[in-house]
Amino acid sequence: MDNKIIQLLNHADLRITQVRKDVLTCFLENNHALSSTDIEEALTTALDRITLYRTLKSFEEKGLIHSIVDPNNTTKYAMCEATCTEHHHHDEHIHFHCTSCGNTFCIEETIPSVHLPTGYRISNASMIVNGLCSNC
């Protein structure tokens, strides 16, 4: 897995640090979106919140992760598709929030097209579907 992490960081033109490697490991080991608290709890080494937030911001800016605000108003982060870049995220897909376990999953279906009245422009679209995940 270390090679994959190094590849991701190199592709994103980010310096390879232990913190970045540890945070990316958290994402790669989980199949659902993670909050900053989830990441803090998963890390075995102590990490201050400012460093974590800067790391998450760098990852998001470089197209490695995207953010989701779940129905509990918690910001969570999930790995981006390989086609995401620093300047364009392809994260307009459905997010599924499990009302039992609280996990949020990326569902790689695009959001249905929305037809707006003349003069309106979409700058961002998100859709969260609530229900029970396959584990619950």
Please explain how this structure is put together.
This protein has one domain (2-131): Winged helix-like DNA-binding domain superfamily/Winged helix DNA-binding domain (Arc Repressor Mutant, subunit A). Helices cover 30% and strands 22% of the residues. The chain has four helices and six strands. It has helices at residues 2-11, 18-28, 36-42, 49-61, and strands spanning 34-35, 65-69, 75-79, 93-98, 104-110, 127-131. Strands 1-3-2 form a three-stranded antiparallel β-sheet. Strands 5-4-6 form a three-stranded mixed β-sheet, with no helix packed on it. Helix 1 crosses helix 2 (18-28). The model has no long low-confidence stretch (mean pLDDT 88).
Quick structural overview:
This protein is of the alpha+beta class. It has helices at residues 2-11, 18-28, 36-42, 49-61, and strands spanning 34-35, 65-69, 75-79, 93-98, 104-110, 127-131. The strands form 2 sheets. Strands 1-3-2 form a 3-stranded antiparallel sheet. Strands 5-4-6 form a 3-stranded mixed sheet, with no helix packed on it.
